[in-house]
Q: What sequence folds into this?
């Protein structure tokens, strides 16, 4: 299959069955032929925003190898369409597919700012870094319309509460005014995801994300404004972008990043078949080689749920990636330190105004 068989602007090319649902929805070939003859689309490729009403918004992260204690997600599903995204599996809990549904059916939590405020004002809450977002990108295109992330940042600022941000979208620069104020009290740290220096690779892996140059510029702008940045060089996919790790580390360091992190790709749950289908369409010449190399990193399978190993990988290929990372830290980040966030101010501001006594 050739690249032009891919749906433009989409990562996943199919909607695999939701493992939690009894019934299977599939589009038959005879129906597709009927639609072709009638000049109709078999299904809509447009984005659907669906409001949902959770009772809580801050999640305790139980996983020991994720690197955060608490997270919150203003949106579920993500228009960016990154083909490797581990968050795809979470869409099945909402009754949707981890494939194209994940990119087209975006669940919107409009009450997130109010729920956040209620959480961090609770008398028993002690300040800990809450990360926007541990699952889907809080600055995905939906944020332009709903501005939920910005409203949440206003809550963090009001109560002087530490916040972490993970994104690959330059839209974060819209909120520099709030971020500067948070940064002045050491209350914010930003993680910018940069997975390749090749636009061709980026467009295939992450079809609706900001360009690489925009992401590097975003790191520079945040750094100039006193906001510490960690570069997320993740995931490293052998045969696609793992060979770029050193150059990625150098580029992000040159633009001001104070540290970097990475993971070795794993394809759990429905992501295994979504990624396999995609790579055989997008990169047919190297699809099997890449899949075999991913398996080599995870004990012979693309699926890995072992704490301590699932994000690190094992075997020769994973060892080579880790060796490159160690060298990158020595060469480009030797004298750089990502600061710890400030947990001391929040208690004084918990009522919404600074205590006088």
A:
């Amino acid at each position: 299959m050739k690249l032009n068989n891919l749906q433009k602007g989409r990562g996943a090319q199919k909607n695999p069955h939701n493992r939690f649902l009894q019934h299977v929805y599939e589009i038959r070939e005879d129906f597709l032929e009927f639609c072709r003859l009638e000049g109709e689309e078999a299904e809509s490729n447009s984005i659907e925003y669906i409001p949902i009403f959770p009772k809580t918004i801050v999640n305790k992260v139980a996983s020991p190898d994720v690197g955060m204690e608490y997270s919150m997600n203003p949106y579920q599903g993500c228009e960016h369409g990154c083909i490797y995204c581990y968050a795809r599996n979470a869409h099945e809990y909402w009754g949707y597919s981890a494939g194209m549904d994940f990119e087209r059916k975006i669940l919107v939590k409009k009450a997130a700012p109010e729920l956040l405020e209620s959480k961090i004002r609770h008398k028993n809450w002690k300040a800990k870094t809450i990360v926007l977002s541990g699952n889907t990108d809080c600055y995905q295109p939906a944020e332009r319309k709903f501005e939920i992330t910005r409203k949440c940042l206003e809550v963090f600022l009001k109560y002087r509460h530490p916040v972490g941000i993970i994104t690959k979208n330059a839209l974060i620069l819209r909120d520099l005014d709030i971020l500067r104020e948070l940064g002045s009290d050491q209350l914010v740290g930003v993680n910018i995801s940069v997975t390749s220096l090749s636009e061709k690779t980026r467009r295939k892996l992450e079809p609706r994300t900001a360009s690489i140059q925009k992401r590097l510029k975003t790191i520079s702008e945040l750094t100039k404004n006193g906001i510490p940045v960690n570069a997320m060089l993740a995931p490293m996919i052998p045969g696609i972008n793992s060979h770029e790790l050193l150059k990625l580390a150098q580029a992000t360091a040159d633009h001001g990043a104070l540290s970097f992190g990475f993971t070795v790709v794993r394809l759990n749950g429905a992501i295994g078949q979504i990624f396999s289908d995609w790579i055989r369409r997008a990169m047919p010449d190297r699809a099997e080689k890449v899949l075999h190399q991913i398996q080599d990193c995870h004990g012979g399978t693309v699926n890995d749920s072992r704490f301590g190993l699932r994000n690190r990988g094992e075997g020769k290929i994973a060892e080579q990636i880790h060796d490159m990372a160690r060298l990158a830290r020595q060469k480009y980040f030797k004298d750089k330190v990502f600061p710890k966030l400030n947990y001391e101010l929040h208690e004084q501001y918990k009522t919404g105004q600074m205590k006088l006594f």
Notes: The longest strand covers residues 188-193.
